[in-house]
Design goal:
heterodimer; A: mainly beta; four-stranded antiparallel β-sheet; 11 strands; 51% strand; globular; B: six-stranded mixed β-sheet; five-stranded antiparallel β-sheet
């Protein structure tokens, strides 16, 4: 089945620094990837849609200058949290859909990244 | 109004019992419905998806969809302690909309 790899799984950083999270589709090409954020005991909230070769589409309320998304190839999307602050501490999850699948069950989630900003 | 609503629980059932999880959604035009299981600190994993009204069975899991009433449910038969997790309902409209999840505990 489709595999999406996310790295790192955990990261602790100091306030004011930047953190990059990678999301790779291992056995398929993903023209679109999605980035979610999940706070404790809350649901997944879509932050942005990453499109290969073009600008990402951000959801309302998500700062595009703070959460930089790069989708430079068909297998890799990166999310960079710039100038991280403690309130950015959260569980970040990416997902991708196989473009050759017409049914939505092709969505696969990465393993997630636990970001802690101290 | 939230796109997808779930009872947050917690729901506790004894081992071997049937666990019933419910979800309602607001967009009547939604076509695709999913149930995910999420263990603490882990990413969601797909359990089932359903597109058509009625029941869909897969092993111990049965998804039920009623588009007229705008609800989708998940039944887990012969519940096992390993089923203890948070179950997320997801509905596809313009994007994936997730419910807040129902926490299930299966008591040995």
């Amino acid at each position: 089945g489709a595999v999406v790899s996310q790295h790192p799984s955990r990261v602790i950083c100091k306030s004011g620094t930047s953190v990059k999270i990678e999301c790779r589709s291992l056995d398929f090409q993903a023209t679109t990837m999605f980035w979610y954020r999940q706070f404790p005991k809350q649901s997944l909230m879509l932050m942005a849609t990453s499109n290969e070769g073009s600008k990402a589409t951000y959801e309302q309320g998500v700062e595009k200058d703070k959460f930089l998304i790069n989708h430079a190839s068909l297998t890799l999307s990166t999310l960079t949290v710039t100038s991280a602050h403690p309130e950015d501490s959260s569980f970040y999850i990416c997902s991708a859909n196989r473009p050759d699948r017409k049914t939505n069950y092709g969505y696969t989630f990465g393993s997630g990244t636990r970001l802690t900003v101290v | 109004q939230k796109e997808v609503e779930q009872n947050s629980g917690p729901l506790s059932v004894p081992e071997g019992a049937i666990a019933s999880l419910n979800c309602t959604y607001s967009d009547r035009g939604s076509q695709s419905f999913f149930w995910y299981r999420q263990y603490s600190g882990k990413s969601p994993e797909l359990i089932m998806f359903i597109y058509s009204n009625g029941d869909k069975e897969d092993g111990r899991f049965t998804a039920q969809l009623n588009k007229a009433s705008q609800y989708v449910s998940l039944l887990i038969r012969d519940s096992q302690p390993s089923d203890s997790a948070t179950y997320l309902c997801a509905v596809v409209g313009n994007q994936f909309y997730f419910g807040t999840g129902t926490s299930l505990t299966v008591i040995p």
